[in-house]
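Researcher: I'd like a candidate sequence for this fold, 604 residues long. If you have to choose between options at a position, lean toward the conservative one.
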């Protein structure tokens, strides 16, 4: 294997596909592949690797004598009970002298785990005094064990999710409530599109994902289902025909609907601003569509029915001379804004009308409808994009790109595998990259490096001697703007020009997300490819394709309005010097620990 070197050698990679294209620009650096904690971690599905690692580090799961986890292997009933008891850190010391089950004697390796689970009501056995520890655990059994561990009152929850499954008739009656809860809470998902596979075997990697999600979200899930029992009178708000998703819930007082102020932070569009002044306990919003000098605005004060419209400084000032100019801007609210447990509630209908939005109320069904003809086509997606572009990104980002070229008229091929990991704290970041180049006319090469930006200094690791160099300027050619690594601003700036389909909720690693599918022509695809990948994919995308060449971008948003995953897919045929080649580009980007403060330290 040849070793690529960090500076001049890396620039020579343009000969990678010399027979296929004229050049490939290589202005990026590379990262080390992180060592696996288990010998066969690479055999696990990508969606399960993080969960397996988390549970291994917590000593909830272990490898076999050879250091293998065997992720695709089916779990036995004894194994699933063991990892749940370990994962919940249950006390296994108070176990009976006499075994509960005749097939799990005291000298059985899982005895204390099975007895503890039985004592806590997590399992009940198979009848006739049997637990069947060696039998394979099915997916509906796994769902039931996890739900029993939650201690949820299942009778409060209606059956909705499983009725949409193609194989809902295959779910055992005794398991239906449990499967419903695991789907609704997001701790389990289907094995395929709209299929749960209740009688299918539960694999080790599936159980690892479910348990990891279960441990991290147990209290939230319990609270979610407690709340579900009280949702009969839930106030729903529909914005431009779609149910609005916002922090908190709406309430009704004296017949007036109040919403958390964050509702308007999210659903006021155009050139908007929002400020809360703690000293005066005032909240203000301003909105302009095109002309910033032709704004609408409102000032509110907690506990005060008096509000001011279109006042461009503080009308609640303690000084009369500051208040006097706004006497003619004064209005009376039907109910005073209020603060409850740190959340500011404001009257919904009056504020929507002040900003010239259409409002209607369906009292029988407790549904408010708001229409705004100036809003973008997909307001939830737009809001998330705006948040990332304006605020930057904190958290972890993992990008994997596979690029493949196959000759149709000639016997040749080339491949690029690019891995990119970023720890980001807005302007400071720590990046690792790894690249593998291979091809029928190129052989095999790979290299890695990492670079750090903290304060006003840049640090780059030289892969030839594993030493760090410090710079006063950015030597990598990459943007310091953390949002560029998450999403290109072109999508935010021109959202309504793209063909976007909003799909139903899906489940990612046990958590629910909204999926958006963006259909892109080739030029749009070029504009949206993340910058860390464009250095490798850009030249290929600029080749001579048919006019209708296209690609797809999938964007997944969490319930917290964060981008948690993106997938870019492009597969088209192009012509180069009279020869035809098939180009395939696949990029997967995962965002994790979003919003987490990450300390970026200088390496030297």
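Model: Candidate sequence:
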């Amino acid at each position: 294997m040849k070793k690529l070197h960090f500076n001049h050698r890396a620039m020579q990679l343009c000969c990678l596909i010399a027979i296929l294209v004229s050049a490939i620009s290589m202005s990026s650096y590379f990262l080390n592949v992180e060592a696996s904690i288990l010998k066969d971690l690479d055999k696990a599905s990508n969606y399960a690797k993080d969960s397996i690692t988390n549970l291994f580090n917590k000593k909830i799961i272990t490898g076999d004598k050879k250091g293998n986890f065997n992720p695709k292997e089916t779990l036995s009933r004894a194994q699933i009970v063991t990892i749940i008891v370990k994962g919940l850190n249950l006390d296994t010391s108070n176990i009976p002298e006499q075994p509960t089950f005749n097939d799990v004697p005291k000298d059985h390796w899982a005895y204390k785990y099975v007895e503890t689970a039985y004592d806590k009501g997590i399992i009940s056995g198979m009848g006739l005094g049997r637990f069947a520890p060696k039998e394979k655990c099915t997916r509906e059994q796994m769902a039931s064990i996890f739900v029993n561990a939650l201690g949820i009152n299942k009778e409060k929850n209606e059956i909705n999710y499983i009725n949409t499954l193609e194989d809902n008739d295959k779910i055992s009656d005794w398991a239906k409530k449990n499967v419903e809860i695991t789907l609704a809470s997001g701790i389990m998902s289907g094995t395929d599109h709209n299929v749960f596979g209740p009688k299918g075997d539960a694999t080790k990697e599936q159980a690892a994902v479910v348990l990891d999600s279960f441990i991290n979200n147990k209290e939230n899930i319990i609270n979610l289902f407690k709340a579900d029992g009280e949702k009969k009178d839930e106030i729903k708000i529909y914005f431009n025909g779609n149910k609005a998703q916002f922090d908190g819930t709406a309430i009704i007082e004296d017949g007036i609907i109040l919403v958390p102020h964050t509702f308007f932070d999210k659903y006021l569009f155009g050139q908007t601003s929002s400020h809360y002044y703690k000293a005066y306990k005032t909240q203000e919003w301003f909105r302009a569509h095109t002309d910033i000098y032709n704004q609408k605005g409102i000032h509110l004060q907690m506990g005060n029915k008096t509000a001011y419209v279109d006042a461009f400084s503080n009308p609640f000032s303690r000084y009369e001379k500051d208040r006097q100019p706004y006497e003619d801007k004064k209005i009376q609210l039907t109910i005073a804004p209020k603060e409850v447990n740190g959340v500011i509630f404001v009257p919904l209908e009056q504020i929507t009308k002040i900003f010239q939005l259409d409002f209607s109320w369906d009292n029988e069904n407790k549904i408010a409808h708001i229409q705004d003809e100036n809003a973008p086509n997909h307001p939830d997606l737009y809001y998330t994009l705006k948040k990332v572009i304006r605020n930057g990104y904190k958290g972890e980002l993992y990008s994997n790109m596979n690029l493949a070229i196959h000759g149709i008229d000639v016997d040749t091929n080339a491949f690029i595998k690019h891995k990119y990991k970023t720890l980001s704290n807005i302007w400071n970041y720590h990046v690792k990259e790894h690249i593998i180049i291979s091809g029928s006319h190129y052989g095999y090469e790979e290299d890695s490096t990492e670079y750090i930006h903290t304060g006003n200094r840049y640090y780059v690791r030289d892969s030839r001697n594993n030493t760090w160099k410090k710079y006063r300027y950015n030597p990598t050619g990459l943007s310091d703007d953390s949002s560029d690594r998450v999403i290109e601003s072109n999508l935010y700036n021109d959202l309504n020009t793209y063909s976007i389909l909003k799909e139903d909720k899906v489940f990612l690693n046990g958590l629910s997300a909204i999926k958006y599918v963006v259909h892109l022509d080739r030029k749009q695809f070029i504009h949206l490819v993340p910058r860390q990948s464009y250095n490798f994919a850009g030249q290929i995308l600029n080749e001579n394709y048919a006019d209708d060449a296209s690609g797809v971008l999938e964007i997944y948003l969490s319930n917290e309005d964060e981008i948690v995953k993106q997938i870019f897919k492009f597969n088209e045929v192009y012509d180069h010097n009279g020869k035809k080649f098939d180009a395939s580009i696949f990029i997967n980007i995962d965002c994790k620990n979003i919003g987490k403060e990450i300390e970026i330290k200088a390496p030297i």
